[in-house]
């Protein structure tokens, strides 16, 4: 008989070695941005924070255990998640109306899911650069949320080491492994997994924006919770 | 002409009357009148007080964002900016207009006809019809679409539904009524489905009939109020628009034609990519809107009018039968000469609504809008220019990009900007002829707004420039005294003046 834990009162089976997020996978949607089932958990975005036996834990890193009482979809936890999402928006420059990722953006979709109707916090308007030096791939640092999915994809799947985070706190930023710091001098190619994994509009394939008509984009007609549950193995990949 | 009323010599001694904001136009503007002790108008100006800066902040962005980014200039005619930018970035991917796939060309035209139709309907029925149906000096609370719906329910409802239909055309092609995303570099991102086509077809005959009714209505209003309607705010001017190579009315793509006030052709079928050899812009310190002029005629005499009046005036014919019949009657009104009446903008505008409705019907029966090749590409270029006839007139988008596809330079000449001098001249004419010497009242001041409104100005669109504009910053203390003043001249130089 398999082991089970409880999420919001629902019995969820799991296998030894799984995290709470892995156990929930196709059964219960736990909001997340830095988690992807193909890559080592990072636990940085904190959107997947749940209460395990009364304590706050990141579902993507916390091991599932027999008999755990997990609270996920509660008013208080979702209010905290909304605040976290608002902080992600104000720390960068996210102009959804003109962003080519709109409709396909996980950050935007999570914000809709959490009923985020304003920024709440004052906008930081940070000065960030756009690196368009690569012939096929572009980084708009304005939209980076430091989820490290590109870092992990480059290391774990592409066998390269193109990206890393540098600095701490508010000075944290994504850097490119090249003498010039520019993408054109890195080992990245357009077919790399790292070039396609960004949950926001920070890393983009050039000259492909707006080719998917409105109405056919990933989240045009489906909440991110439905998309996430339906694509538990690939997580939103198109 | 009334240029002498642009700047009064003894402004400090004159009484100041301000209309702020100018209502029932898109964007924010104000009119200032300076009157002497006998209430004679000594100075009249239309100031555009918005500041946008699009030309600057799109620099540094990738070019494929442009059609979606710059359409945010406006909520009424975003499709015009979307398509002008798309035409410009077509060139960046090596696609000239004649090489655009047939389906993409027709779908963009369909989108544009929907846009012009809804914008014109909005302007005439929602914004201007209260003036025209109730009188320029009617009670203030009557001057709204709500009062039109109460007094003339058929006209009001038809106006609302004509606009709605145009918006539905936009939604079917670009995914949203406002700020969609249809056109992309070298084409368009979707064709219509048969269901979408059929949805639009079911009401098009009704729209054509209502558009015909609207033309008849404005013709009756205009001709019942002669010679007042011909003379009010009227001015003899040059006219500029795109036309087809054969001289037909054209809204999406054509060559530049300019006629002078006597109807003489100054330019014809000029490639719009050469526009800066023919048109320059001047800045003045008291408004954020520039003053374009024809280089060959100079700053003083080179100003011109654009928009429906220009287009219907200077085209040789319209290629849809009902609109052409309406154009023939329009030109018969002036014995085939150019129509200079500013209020005839409304008449020309509704002829274009009819043309749009007929053109939409024609395109809906064309199988090319249901599929086929939608996108093509050529060799990369570093400069792109897109020009289109927006509802309010000829719209120029000009971009340069670097080797990384990033925008390095942008110049936009927005339709309303071209009418800047004419609007100011009309304001001065109305102020001098109808207001001067009278005790000013709110209904009387509405005459000034009626003159501005005839141009259907989009003031938010028109104030996009940054870098060359003269600016004035004043530090005022609690007593209202100017403590210090910082001036930025149009040369870019700063000057500090201590109070």
What do these coordinates show?
The complex is a heterodimer of chains A (238) and B (499). Chain A has 238 residues and is of the alpha+beta class. Chain A folds into two domains: 3-73, Ubiquitin-like (UB roll); 82-222, Alpha-Beta Plaits (2-Layer Sandwich), CATH 3.30.70. Helix content of chain A is 19%, strand content 16%. Chain A has a five-stranded mixed β-sheet with strand order 2-1-5-3-4. A three-stranded antiparallel β-sheet of chain A has the order 6-7-10, with no helix packed on it. Chain A is globular. Mean pLDDT of chain B is 90; it is low at 464-469. Chain B is α+β, with helices and mostly antiparallel strands. Chain B has three domains: 3-49 and 424-470, no CATH class; 54-421, Orthogonal Bundle (Cytochrome-c3 Hydrogenase, chain B), CATH 1.10.645.10; 471-499, no CATH class. In chain B, the strands form six sheets. Chain B has a four-stranded mixed β-sheet. Chain B is globular. Chain B has helices spanning 54-57, 66-70, 78-92, 102-134, 145-151, 153-174, 194-224, 228-231, 298-301, 308-314, 321-333, 344-364, 415-418, 420-435, 442-454, and strands spanning 15-19, 29-35, 41-48, 183-184, 187-188, 238-243, 255-259, 265-270, 279-282, 291-294, 304-305, 383-390, 393-401, 407-413, 471-476, 482-488, 494-498. The chains are: A alpha+beta (238), B alpha+beta (499). Chains A and B meet through loops of A and helix 2 of B.
């Amino acid at each position: 008989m398999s082991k089970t834990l409880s999420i919001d009162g629902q019995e969820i089976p799991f296998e030894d070695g799984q995290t709470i997020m892995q156990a929930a996978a196709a059964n219960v949607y736990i909001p997340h941005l830095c988690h992807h089932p193909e890559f080592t958990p990072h636990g940085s975005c904190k959107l997947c924070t749940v209460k395990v036996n009364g304590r706050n834990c990141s579902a993507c890193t916390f091991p599932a255990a027999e008999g755990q009482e997990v609270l996920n979809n509660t008013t208080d936890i979702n209010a905290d998640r909304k605040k976290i999402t608002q902080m992600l928006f104000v720390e960068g420059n996210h102009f959804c109306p003109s962003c080519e990722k709109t409709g396909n953006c996980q950050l935007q979709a999570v914000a809709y899911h959490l009923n985020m109707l304003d920024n709440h916090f004052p906008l930081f308007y940070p000065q960030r650069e756009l690196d368009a030096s690569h012939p096929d791939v572009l980084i708009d640092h304005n939209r980076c949320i430091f989820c490290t999915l590109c870092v992990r994809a480059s290391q774990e799947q592409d066998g390269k080491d193109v990206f890393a985070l540098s600095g701490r706190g508010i000075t944290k930023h994504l850097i490119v492994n090249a003498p010039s710091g520019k993408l054109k001098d890195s080992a990245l190619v357009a077919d790399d997994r790292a070039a396609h994994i960004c949950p926001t509009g920070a890393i983009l394939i050039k000259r492909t924006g707006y080719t998917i008509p409105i109405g056919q984009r990933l989240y045009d007609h489906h909440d991110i919770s439905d998309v996430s549950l339906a694509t538990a193995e690939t997580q939103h990949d198109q | 002409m009334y240029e002498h009323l642009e700047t009064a010599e003894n402004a400090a001694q004159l009484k100041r009357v301000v209309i702020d904001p100018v209502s029932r136009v898109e964007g924010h503007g104000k009119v200032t009148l300076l009157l002497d002790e006998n209430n004679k108008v000594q100075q009249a100006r239309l100031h555009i007080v918005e500041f946008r800066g699009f030309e600057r902040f799109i620099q540094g962005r990738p070019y494929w964002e442009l059609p979606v980014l710059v359409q945010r200039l406006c909520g009424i005619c975003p499709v015009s900016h979307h398509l002008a930018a798309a035409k410009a970035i077509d060139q960046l991917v090596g696609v000239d207009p004649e090489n655009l796939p047939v389906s993409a060309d027709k779908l963009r035209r369909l989108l544009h006809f929907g846009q012009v139709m809804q914008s014109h309907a909005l302007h005439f029925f929602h914004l201007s019809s209260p003036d025209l149906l109730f009188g320029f000096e009617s009670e203030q609370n009557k001057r709204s679409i709500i009062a039109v719906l109460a007094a003339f329910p058929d006209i009001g409802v038809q106006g609302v539904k004509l606009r709605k239909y145009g918006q539905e055309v936009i939604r079917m092609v670009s995914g949203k009524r406002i700020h969609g995303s249809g056109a992309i570099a070298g084409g368009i991102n979707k064709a219509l489905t048969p269901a979408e086509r059929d949805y639009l077809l079911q009401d098009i005959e009704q729209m054509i009939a209502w558009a015909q009714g609207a033309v008849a209505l404005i013709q009756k209003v205009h001709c019942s109020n002669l010679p007042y309607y011909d003379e009010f705010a009227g001015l003899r001017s040059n006219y500029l628009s795109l036309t087809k190579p054969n001289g037909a009315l054209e809204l999406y793509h054509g060559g530049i034609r300019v006629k002078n006030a006597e109807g003489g052709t100054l330019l014809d079928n000029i490639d719009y990519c050469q526009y800066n050899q023919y048109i320059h812009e001047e800045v003045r310190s008291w408004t954020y809107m520039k003053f374009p002029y024809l280089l060959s005629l100079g700053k003083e005499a080179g100003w011109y009018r654009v928009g429906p009046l220009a287009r219907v005036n200077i085209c040789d014919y319209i290629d849809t039968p009902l609109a052409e019949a309406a154009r023939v009657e329009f030109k018969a009104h002036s014995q085939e000469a150019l129509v200079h009446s500013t209020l005839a903008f409304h008449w020309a505008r509704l002829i274009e609504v009819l043309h749009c409705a007929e053109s939409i019907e024609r395109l809906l029966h064309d199988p090319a809008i249901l599929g086929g090749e939608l996108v093509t590409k050529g060799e990369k270029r570093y400069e792109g220019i897109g020009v289109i006839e927006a509802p309010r007139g000829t719209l120029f988008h000009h971009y340069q990009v670097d080797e990384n596809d990033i925008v390095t330079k942008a110049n936009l000449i927005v339709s309303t900007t071209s009418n800047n001098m004419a609007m100011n001249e009309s304001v001065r004419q109305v102020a001098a002829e109808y207001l001067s010497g009278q005790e000013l009242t709110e209904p009387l001041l509405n005459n000034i707004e009626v003159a501005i409104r005839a141009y259907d100005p989009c003031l938010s669109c028109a104030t996009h420039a940054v870098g060359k504009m003269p600016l004035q910053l004043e530090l005022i203390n609690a007593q209202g005294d100017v403590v210090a003043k910082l001036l930025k001249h149009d040369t870019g130089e700063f000057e500090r003046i201590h109070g």
